[in-house]
Write a structure and sequence with these properties.
By secondary structure, the protein is mainly α. It has four helices and two strands.
Length: 114
């Protein structure tokens, strides 16, 4: 279902704003007992999303890889779900790389925004 929704969104954006780059994300990870059963679906979801991204030439950011070290450390939010500051920085860096892949002509402004 996730891939169907992603494709509907990508297709709609391509129709309405063909100049707008589309960047996908793979699911994040967490360290929360309340959401323990959610991780069993991460690998199949990531595989399906990755296959879709290759077929549609959509750059991906792997949120799990970006935040894994942070979320399993004492620097993350104690709830085990929300990223700490370093996790957010790593996601931002990964997003910047993905934007550059999607829009190689994009140049950052004085404040660093692409």
């Amino acid at each position: 279902m996730s891939v169907e929704y992603l494709e509907t969104i990508r297709d709609s954006l391509a129709y309405m704003r063909p100049d707008l780059p589309v960047i996908g994300t793979l699911p994040s990870v967490h360290d929360s007992e309340q959401y323990r059963s959610v991780h069993h679906g991460r690998r199949p979801a990531a595989r399906a999303i990755s296959q879709w991204a290759v077929e549609k030439s959509v750059p991906l950011v792997d949120l799990g890889e970006a935040v894994r070290e942070n979320i399993f450390s004492d620097a993350a939010n104690p709830d085990g779900i929300h990223w700490g500051w370093d996790g957010h920085r790593k996601v931002a860096d990964a997003m910047i790389d993905a934007v550059r892949m999607a829009r190689p002509d994009a140049q950052p402004t004085a404040d660093g925004i692409l």
